[in-house]
Amino acid sequence: MRANRLMGAALVERNLVKIEELEQANERLLQIVDSSPPRQCTVLGVLAYEMKVLKEEELLQFLVEQEGLGVVDLRCYEIAEDAVKGLDLGACWATWSVPFDQVDGFHFIASAYWLSPAVRTFWEKQLNGPILWFGTTLEGIADFIEKRESSAPRPVAN
Question: Which of 4, 53, 59, 147 could bridge across to 43 with cysteines, CB 3.0–4.6 Å?
Answer without folding.
Answer: 4
